[in-house]
């Protein structure tokens, strides 16, 4: 490997680490804002399923496992939010028609009233994932029952429990 490649890699690692610190700081500031304002928000998670395995990820600024997702931009539909978040967080580009509504729940965690919509995407084979190592530091497909043993946000746990009940009921 050439020395300048090594330097670029080291510089990238430092930049990634500093960006993760910035994400944690921004998340802390957002939590403080939500504590004061108690806003009503809407968010979307996309459950990508390959058989009984579901795509989970780990954000750099939260300890709980999650799925690709986030808040809707103004004027953005749930499906548009879902396709954008899949592309941004794990590098998956999908057709809007491939996402189907699956579940929704209101969450009062994080000091806000968050209406969370779950969309589902079925894939035949686990697609290659591309994460930035800044916002998202890990992503992989996990067996549903193993996923339920991980530390999950309450909304995610409610969705996965619902899915397990549908599968076994």
Automatic annotation (TrEMBL):
GO terms for molecular function: hydrolase activity. Its cofactor is Mg(2+). It comes from the Bacteria. Pfam families: NUDIX. It is an enzyme of class 3 (hydrolase). Gene3D superfamilies: Nucleoside Triphosphate Pyrophosphohydrolase (3.90.79.10). The keyword Hydrolase applies. The keyword Hydrolase applies. Residues 36-164 form the Nudix hydrolase domain. Its EC number is 3.6.-.-. InterPro entries: NUDIX_hydrolase-like_dom_sf, NUDIX_hydrolase_dom. Keywords: Hydrolase. This is NUDIX hydrolase.
């Amino acid at each position: 490997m050439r020395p300048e490649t090594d330097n670029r890699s080291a510089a990238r690692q430092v930049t990634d680490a500093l960006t993760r610190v910035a994400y944690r700081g921004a998340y802390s500031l957002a939590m403080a804002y939500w504590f004061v304002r108690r806003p009503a928000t809407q968010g979307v998670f996309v459950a990508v399923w390959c058989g009984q395995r579901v795509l989970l990820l780990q954000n750099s600024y939260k300890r709980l496992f999650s799925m690709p997702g986030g808040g809707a931009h103004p004027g953005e539909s749930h499906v548009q939010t879902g396709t954008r978040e899949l592309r941004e967080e794990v590098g998956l580009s999908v057709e809007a028609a491939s996402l189907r509504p699956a579940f929704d729940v209101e969450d009062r965690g994080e000091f806000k009233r968050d209406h969370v919509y779950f969309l589902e995407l079925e894939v035949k084979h686990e697609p290659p994932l591309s994460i930035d190592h800044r916002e998202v530091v890990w992503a992989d497909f996990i067996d549903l029952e193993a996923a339920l043993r991980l530390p999950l946000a309450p909304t995610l746990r409610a969705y996965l429990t619902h899915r397990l009940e549908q599968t076994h009921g």
